[in-house]
Amino acid sequence: MAPKVYIDGKLYEKGEARISVYDHGLLYGDGVFEGIRVYGGRIFRCAEHLDRLFASARAITLEVPMDRQALQDAMHQTLAATGLRDAYIRLLVTRGEGNLGLDPHACPTPSVIIIADSIALYPQEHYEKGLELVTVSTVRTPANVLNPRIKSLNYLNNILAKIECLQAGAHEAIMLNQEGFVAECTGDNIFILKDGRLVTPPVNAGILEGITRQVVMELARGAGMEVLERNMTQFDLYVADECFLTGTAAEIAPVVRIDSRSIGDGRPGAVTKKLLQMFRDYIAASVG
Ligand SMILES: Cc1ncc(COP(=O)(O)O)c(C=O)c1O
């Protein structure tokens, strides 16, 4: 079950996959990507991932050189070559090979790269004991600087936040926006439960519109829960009954401590556990 890499129409072994050092994806982080799960051979929420990829590309005037069907076929082709039924796909579109200047017009042909690999699951301990988070000083990039809705290859903002949280001995970082409202974590969205309601920051707080976030909101509303997209401060986090993160890799991960304070009773919450079970049931049903 070795990983496989698709680059512009050809499949490679991981160790053989190469791109040009003049690719502006490498030189400038000029490109977009998606991280996608495959459950039981099916690409989870494929349409939503392709929608977001095309929106990110359009926002940076990057023309994706393949249509949706061709991208989907290429993902399936890459996946089939791995033999994996449960996998993680990294789909990238880079600006392509250019010169050493910034001008994207020097890059005539964008590159499509698809990496299909086994999913590096978070340790089971994180789900049983819950995650410890810290609020970091690295502010989430404001939308009028580089909109976090663009899932671009430039993740330095998130990496700086990740470095801060690791230095503080925490699992994840909470990033605030310029106004001081809670935005998101380095690769996950955040939710709290307060008085029976789920609350998560709105898209205009300057976040990536997570696909897992969307699925969780749908499942919770379907189960009759109230879900609000509302600005939150650290106060809201500290007084929450429960807190959890959502993301393609993490799925739904409970949070038990924030800035050294216990959230709720300091253990993964009952509603969080129920939502994770609903999420897994939903996946099992969609795999058939
Ligand atoms: C910054 C950021 N926020 C949130 C998410 C969660 O989004 P999704 O649920 O689509 O994986 C990700 C991961 O893609 C991310 O990189």
Major pleated sheet: 9 strands, mixed
Low-confidence blocks of residues: none
How would you classify the helix and strand content by structural class? Answer: alpha+beta
CATH hierarchy class name of the largest domain? Alpha Beta
Shape: globular
Report on the structure:
The chain is α+β, with helices and mostly antiparallel strands. It has two domains: 4-117, Aminotransferase class 4, branched-chain amino acid transferase, N-terminal domain (D-amino Acid Aminotransferase, Chain A, domain 1), CATH 3.30.470.10; 124-287, D-amino Acid Aminotransferase, subunit A, domain 2 (D-amino Acid Aminotransferase, Chain A, domain 2). It is built from eight helices and 15 strands. The protein has helices at 24-28, 46-59, 68-82, 124-129, 156-167, 211-222, 234-238, 270-287; strands at 4-7, 10-13, 31-39, 42-43, 87-94, 111-117, 131-135, 172-176, 182-184, 189-194, 197-200, 226-229, 242-247, 251-258, 261-262. Strands 7, 8, 9, 10, 11, 12, 13, 14 and 15 form a nine-stranded mixed beta sheet that branches. The protein has a six-stranded antiparallel beta sheet with strand order 2-1-6-5-3-4. Helix 6 links the parallel strand 11 (197-200) and strand 12 (226-229). The protein is globular, with a radius of gyration of 19 Å. The two termini are 23 Å apart. The model has no long low-confidence stretch (mean pLDDT 97). The protein binds pyridoxal-5'-phosphate. Residues 35, 158, 184, 187-189, 208, 210-213, 246-248 line the site of pyridoxal-5'-phosphate (PLP).
